Amino acid sequence: MLSLENLSTFYGNFEAIKGISMSVEQGELVAVIGANGAGKTTLMRTICGLHKPKIGRIMFADIDITSLGPVERVKKGIVYCPEGRMLFPEMKVSDNLEMGAYTCIDDLKKNFDKVLALFPVLKDRKNQLAGSLSGGEQQMLAIGRSLMGNPKLILFDEPSTGLAPIIAEELMQVIKQLNDEGKTVVLVEQNVHLALEISQRGYIIENGKIVLEGDALALRENEEVKRAYLGG
Ligand SMILES: Nc1ncnc2c1ncn2[C@@H]1O[C@H](COP(=O)(O)OP(=O)(O)O)[C@@H](O)[C@H]1O
Ligand SMILES: [Mg+2]
Description:
By secondary structure, this protein is of the alpha/beta class. It folds into 2 domains: 1-77 and 154-232, 3-Layer(aba) Sandwich (Rossmann fold); 80-151, no CATH class. It has 10 helices and 10 strands. A 6-stranded mixed sheet has the order 6-7-8-3-9-10, with helices on both faces. It has a 4-stranded antiparallel sheet with strand order 2-1-4-5, with helices on one face. The structure holds adenosine-5'-diphosphate and magnesium ion (MG).
């Protein structure tokens, strides 16, 4: 479904993504794991069109989308759920959700109901300001906003960051459920335990390069991964 071919993305002269190739099949849940600064966010932003790669090609559903802008990519079904959530804290929960629907206004009501059914706590708080929600609720809202855009592929960037372990675990189960229901998912995480528990496959990224890839189970049992990311 998604295929990255030798992608390189620069900030000025600094090459943050160095010739990354990876693929995601329709229906897969694929983890991208790496330390702070490894290039995970740059990679996600390159996939969704917020950064232009200097080198390489991005194929989505057999179409070359490398030159498409971010809005065109959302219309094709690629939705980015950003690191740090990037909500509008001074806007109501319901208005934040509507912001996610700008490419498919016709489905707004239907998707709104679906999101509130998935996250009943947001239904109770739909008239509250987003900034007044707890961290976990804000992440639910960020996920909900992504779902408002009719995604085929959702790129989650560190959804568990800053959340209590039990809340993080719950959110992972929601992401797993979305995948079970047919959404293709790329999940960026520093929490390797959580990510590899629900993923089918994973890529390990260091200094802008993929250094290891494989089935989630094999990665969990890999000695290098254990040492570097799983605390021994
Ligand atoms: N806007 C930017 N300008 C310059 N350098 C950046 C910018 N954003 C990220 N970087 C650098 O690119 C590298 C990768 O960053 P990032 O993709 O945010 O990593 P990660 O998401 O894995 O923590 C880091 O060295 C970071 O300092
Ligand atoms: Mg990041």
